[in-house]
Amino acid sequence: MKRKTWTKRLTGLFLSVAVFATAMGGMVSKVEAAPVASQANLQLEAKSAILVEASTGRVIYSKDPDVALPVASMSKIMSEYLVQEAVKQKKINWDDVVPVSEYAFYIAKISDSSGVYLNLGESFTVKQLSEAMTIVSANDATVLLAEKVAGSEAAFVEMMNKKAVELGMKNTMFVTSTGLPANELGPYSVKTDQVENLMSARDSAILARALIRDFPEALEVSKKTNFTFRTGTPQEWSKKSFNWMLPGLISYYPGVDGLKTGHTLAAGYCFTGTAVRDNMRLISVVMNTDSNTKRFAETRKLFDYGFSNYKLTKQMDKNVPVKGFEIAPVKNGVEVTVPAVTGSEVNMITKIGTEAKFTPTVTFQDLTAPITQGQVVGKIVLKEEGMKDTDYLQPEDATKAGVDVVAGQAVEEASWIRLFFRSIIEFFSNLFSSGTGN
Fold it and tell me: Of 55, 79, 137, 200, which is the active-site residue?
């Protein structure tokens, strides 16, 4: 009996251990099979969002980034871009004086519309109007600038949509210069099936990045916390920026120096922001949050995640050759090649605590002597192992973005006699090379 009892006990113990081991094995396999999240779960309370590192175009976080949504006054980033471009092309000047139009006066009287209360008979400079548009989102100033640049708002909107295509914004359509609904402009309302300006979070980031890249001076305006209009007159008027993440305002975040808020009933509360820390600039977009402060709280989540988990790291020094691409061919020069070196430091964004591997590729220009030392001769692109084009803001960021490669020394143009004898040598060299293959 004792032997049978111990046998039963051992059998029971064995079965218990087997069951436990099987259960544990199942748990382990479940843990191993659990998918790894491709990005942090920030529990972002926004309909759409994106976070991008500006210099590389690397997307750090995204949530439905390609859905076209109403953007309200974030549209003014494009209006600002076109004003800056018109000044650069000398089509208009910052000091040009612009009289208030009937349309701008009408917009100024719309209740609950951001503006500087323009009156007929007044005139203001392009610079004053541009600052009003950028800092306090003045709709009346924006339409006046649109008329100044293009002759009419309708023509200006055409320019906005054309520029969107040029910049690679694939989910954008503008119907007004301001972001005001096209059917809420009284006698100036536009007859269209689409009444709201539409833009995706990705497109808004593309636009913000283009503005900062092409007109970095725009940040000197967008970082201002206060705006004063009609300075020195009895009608002097001051207001704080709508960007509450700027220094001294209630949602302050260190490093923020732009860019643009937006709000309509359809758009909810939106914000395209940018901040810089440790030489790394991030661009964030949150769309359709449910309150004024919520858009800044969600932007804070994005910035905290980006700055805490990523950094720009130096991959190559300035003035060093790239292995495998040390020389570039030169036509009609005393020398037939020129040493090629990096024109600046090569920095890439990497996740803190991980070691990324980058493969360099250099594309050389078609070079003809004379070549001066320091002249751009090509571009180096570093591609991270395992990265896809979809991991960047735009596909070309993975293939075209990079750092200039420059000539390490000058190459003089060769004389005709040198080129003549060189051609003879090359002819016979090619002749004998082809003959050895027979």
Answer: 137
Rounded CA-CA distance 15/35 in Å is: 32
Of 63, 76, 163, 260, the catalytic one is 76
User: Counting beta carbons within 10 angstroms of the beta carbon of residue 399, is it exposed (0 to 12), middle (13 to 18) or buried (19 or more)?
Assistant: middle
Sequence-separated (6 or more) residues with CB below 8 Å from residue 433: none
Per annotation, catalytic residue among 55, 73, 204, 222: 73
388 assigned to active site: no
Cα(120)–Cα(232) distance, integer angstroms: 19
Q: Are 305 and 365 in contact (CB under 8 A)?
A: no
Give the gyration radius of the chain's Cα atoms.
Answer: 30
| CA gap 219, 364 in Å, rounded | 33
Q: Specify whether 224 is catalytic.
A: no
Active site residue 137: yes
Neighbours of 32 (CB within 10 A): 7
Please list the rounded mean pLDDT of every run of 10 residues in the chain (438 residues): 41 38 35 39 95 94 97 98 98 98 96 93 98 98 98 98 98 98 93 94 98 97 97 94 97 97 97 96 98 98 97 91 92 88 90 85 90 93 78 83 88 76 68 57
How many Å apart are CA 141 and CA 101, to the nearest integer? 10
> pTM of this prediction?
0.82
